Amino acid sequence: MEIQLNELIEQIKKDGVDAAEAQAAAVISSAKAEAEKIIADAKAQADKMIADAKSENAKTVKSGEDALRQAGRNLLISFRESVTKELKAITGESVNAVYSSEAFAKLIVTAVEGWAGKPEAEDITVILNANDLARLEETVLAALKAKMSGGVTLKANDNFDGGFRIAVNNGAIYYDYSAEAVTDMLSAYLSPRVAALLKEAE
Q1: In whole angstroms, what is the distance from residue 162 CA to residue 78 CA?
Q2: SS3 state of residue 71
Q3: pTM to 2 decimal places
Q4: What is the separation, in whole angstroms, between the first and last Cα of the chain?
Q5: Cβ(120)–Cβ(169) under 8 Å?
Q6: What is the C-alpha separation between 14 and 27, in angstroms, rounded?
């Protein structure tokens, strides 16, 4: 009877120890799983933070590069406009200088001669502003009479500052040699050339 009691006690102890060990193993396993989950979550969060930081950094760098490119484009456009404006001013000064010189009368005579050779030019009128007409009337008319058999009319019109216009067939056809028109024409030629040179320098 005592042996059976001892065996029963041993069995109870063994069952208790086994149960405690099983419970401890379950607790340890659960703790390990929880720890692994915490580590995995922390790693995933850290990876996400790094990825977000890289993405944000890439966006910032791209934004900075885009802003720099735009600033460069704006600077180049501003520079081109400034150069074009300066060229137009220089061209205008050069045209006005020619139109104020003695060469102006020769220029008018040459232009009229060119028009006089055209079959559609039945009559020719040279239009100048009043000041230029007063200054050039005698010399221009004398030169034209010496070179042409047909008559040429000189007429005043103060709608433009300098230069002249040629009208043929009672004003049906006009050709504009005014200072403004010639400056615009030369500037239009110079601007694409300047733009091309600036483009090559990029």
Answers
A1: 30
A2: helix
A3: 0.51
A4: 109
A5: yes
A6: 19
Query: pLDDT tens across 88-108, in order?
Result: 777 777 777 777 777 888 888
The bridge status of strand 163-168 relative to strand 173-178 is: antiparallel
CATH architecture observed for domain 1-202: 2-Layer Sandwich (3.30)
Residues in contact with 187: Cβ distance below 8 Å, sequence separation at least 6, in sequence order = 84, 87, 88, 91
Residues 17-74: pLDDT tens digits?
666 667 767 777 777 877 788 887 778 787 788 887 788 888 887 877 777 778 767 7
Among residues 178, 185, 175, 171, the alpha carbon closest in space to that of 112 is found at: 175
- Report in angstroms the alpha-carbon separations of 31 from 20, 35, 41, 195: 16, 6, 15, 74
How many Cβ atoms from other residues are within 10 Å of residue 142's Cβ?
12
